[in-house]
Amino acid sequence: MTTVSASPTVHEVVPSAIIRLLKLLPWLLVAALPLALPGYEPLATQVFVMILFALSLDLLVGYAGIVTLGHAGLFGMGGYTAGIFSVHGITDPIATAVCAMILAAVTGLMFGAAMLRTKGLTLLMLTMASAFLLYEIANKATGLTGGEDGLQGVSFTPVLGLFAFDFRGKTAFFYSLAALFIVFIFVRALINSPFGWSLRGIRENDARMVAIGCPIMQRRIIVYVISSALAGLAGALQAQSTQFVALYSLSFELSGNILIMLILGGSGRLYGAFIGVPAFMFAQDLLAKQDPANWYLGQGIILIALVMLAPGGILGIAERVIDVIKRRRVRNGHRDS
Amino acid sequence: MILYLISVGLSVTMGLMGFVNLAHGVFAMLGGYATVTFMNRFGIPFLLALTIGCVLVAALGFVLERTLYRYLYGRSELDQVLFSFGLILVSVALVRIAWGPLAQPIQLPDYLRGRVNILDFALPAYRLALVGFGAAVIAGLWFVFDRTLFGARIRAAVDNRAMAQSIGIDTNRLFAAAFGLGTGLAALGGGLGADVLAISPTYPLQYIVYFLIVVAVGGLGNIKGPFVAALTIGLADTACRYFLPEAGSIFIFAFVFVVLIWRPNGIMERR
After folding, report:
1. What ipTM is given for this predicted complex?
2. Is B256 near chain A, with CB under 8 Å?
3. How far is A243 from chain B (nearest CA, A)?
4. Residue-range domains of chain A with CATH
């Protein structure tokens, strides 16, 4: 695995208060997006939801070193929870989102407690089997989920009783952006906490973590549950913004795609999800326009190239470039003095 | 039985070489396409087409191992998963461009179409041939791995690669050969099973779960495990579809889940 390097270069140059303000800037810019590009709100909402989902996956893959091929199972769990609640008359968006998180977390706890005993290929297979299990259940329980047709008739009351979900998707845009922001703050605090560092320790060397008295099984299950809850939230947001839940939200394809998006941006880097998801969606839009086969080909080549040449994804490349510049500057500095 | 034929090749590449190879179905698919194409376009008889297909795909596997796979042996599982997933996507796209999106029908030769009467049961000759082939492959593999120098070398290299290398075994070439063998087996399974598992561009995506299940349940790096696993899973699946048709494949995944929790290293775990 790649090591996480906090890049001190920027911090040394600019005072931290300004940095903090600058870090808010992208969020404000994005929030102003509807003014600049009206009509793109639904697409942007999709991007936010996927970023949130990728962020939850990053906790597992990037920080705890748990590779899963079944994360869509939890995403879909959240989506269906929100959808089914709404069909049966519980239509407050925030309440259903919380319920979705709880249900996804419980599912994650059940599967995680069983699966995380294993490692390597077996774990990979178990994550995959768990998602397929949920997929098949949703596929067969047509009375509850609508089966292959998807769950229709999903609608929600206004957020906080004030902002109704409008046709143009403006409410969904700000609603999911706000959720993403909260989750981002939470995840950032989590990975910088002692708990977050113990996860990295488990990823790098679990035997040593056991030796220094870290209950690794418990830590792994906790992070799995947290990640499940966040994936569930993403699923619920998806259901609320599109007013529809499709079987796709549980599929292996989605599990694979979200993993690719994360890797493309760079896993274990917090911002990887923010880079990878838009890049992936942009490329998809570009390549799939003429022929879906093009997109498969492009996606495959990107993946192979990433693994072969740039294991850190886009952010990994950026880090390396910065590294080279830094080293050069240091060398020049020596020459000057 | 088809599952077994394809999966045992995967067990060889994945188990013996410790590589998470999701792209195994790709080689099975190519084997199927090669067989079908040789038969339909050049009028080559089934068995010969199958053999040519196998050899070609094995050669391709050998080349891919030398050019791409070998750089990934030491890398993390995640990298291997992503790489082989990428390979799947590329192959799906290329095959779609080359052969079109539709499934390729296979014309079985006459001697495989009829029925054979054994005792009082009339069995389709095709299925019988599959079982026969499977048995032959098991016997052949067992012989190769347990009784020949090549097999002994592979086992040695898997148990301790550095040591094997230091006593003069060319592990690089050995692994390439083993990889070729694994992919060749996949192609054999794909070609033979073309009538059961339809050959279409989404083949590797569609069936990868089944291959992986068989290997994971059967345990890595042995020949008997996948056989037992393929048999149990096949039987369980059929029984379940018969008794509880509405449950679909829920049961099979639940079954796999339970087995893997119970025996994380497969049902034929070496102790």
Report:
1. 0.73
2. yes
3. 27
4. 8-30+41-336 (1.10.3470)
